[in-house]
Write a structure and sequence with these properties.
CATH class: Alpha Beta
Helix content: 25-40%
Distance between the termini: 74 Å
Largest sheet: 7 strands, mixed
Strand content: 15-25%
CATH topology: Rossmann fold
CATH superfamily: Vaccinia Virus protein VP39
Oligomer: single chain
Shape: globular
Number of domains: 1
Strand order of the largest sheet: 1-8-9-5-4-2-3
Radius of gyration: 27 Å
Structural class: alpha/beta
Number of helices: 9
Number of strands: 9
């Protein structure tokens, strides 16, 4: 009886028994990994993308593209201006569709009434002049506020440009397509106007999800009026909203 028990124990520790060990089988098999998307792979192979940036719009947009724009995507910049957003980005790997009611003579499209088909875009870039023009805005020459907003106040800019653009982006974006919204808070009639909060609430009401937010800190210091009543802003925001499936 004792000899049979010893023979049985030897069989239990033999090679045949160890090969049936599920732990050994798992460790010996090669690990399987999910292949990342082109955009995610590009971002991981270069510099990491953070929420806060110091510099200009071009570097910020380049990093956002590396994180979110895939090869072959359709990207509509409906407030193209002079194209400063894209100066540091390799736009050859995707389809950049530039239009602007003032600066693009061949495509002077109204951002609230675009010729694009429903659910045809992967990204929609919205950067209208976000400073109200009554008075003497300090950056008007650079951003051509007066030509675009025609003496609009803050509420007009929100309802006509931002809301109008968001509604059109909802129509033209694919499900889970991304809406990029550039903005900056401002002062109107001596009171704070929190534009980025208004736009967040607006986007949620139009059926978007707030996927990401970037803060851009300017390299230059903005001018300050003689009698300063609030901290002078030297940062702006870029919201990334995702269209919820209909």
């Amino acid at each position: 009886m004792k000899k049979q028990k010893v023979r049985k124990n030897k069989q239990q520790i033999s090679g045949r028994t160890s090969r049936k060990n599920p732990t050994t089988s798992i460790l010996s098999s090669p690990p399987t990994t999910k292949k990342p998307s082109t955009a995610a792979s590009t971002a991981s192979s270069k510099e990491k993308v953070y929420t806060a940036h110091k510099g200009d719009n071009a570097k910020l947009i380049r990093n956002v593209c590396e994180l979110y724009v895939k090869d072959g995507d359709y990207v509509a910049d409906v407030t193209f201006g002079k194209g400063s957003f894209w100066r540091s980005t390799d736009a050859s790997r995707f389809n950049l569709m530039a239009s602007d009611i003032l600066s693009c003579k061949d495509k002077p499209y109204d951002l609230t009434d675009l010729p694009y088909d429903d659910a045809s875009l992967d990204h929609f870039v919205l950067d209208p002049p976000y400073m109200h023009t009554p008075g003497k805005p300090m950056v008007d020459k650079r951003y051509r506020n007066s030509e675009t907003t025609r003496a609009m106040y803050h509420g007009d800019i929100m309802s006509k440009l931002y809301a109008g653009g968001m509604i059109e982006s909802r129509r033209t974006l694919k499900n889970r397509g991304m809406l990029w919204v550039k903005c900056q808070d401002e002062i109107q009639s001596g009171k704070q106007v929190w534009s980025h909060i208004e736009l967040y609430n607006m986007a949620l009401a139009f059926g978007f999800y707030a996927k990401d937010m970037f803060v851009l800190l300017s390299n230059s210091q903005p001018p300050v009026q003689a009698q300063q009543q609030h901290a002078r802003r030297n940062h702006s925001y870029l919201w990334i909203f995702e269209k919820k499936p209909q």
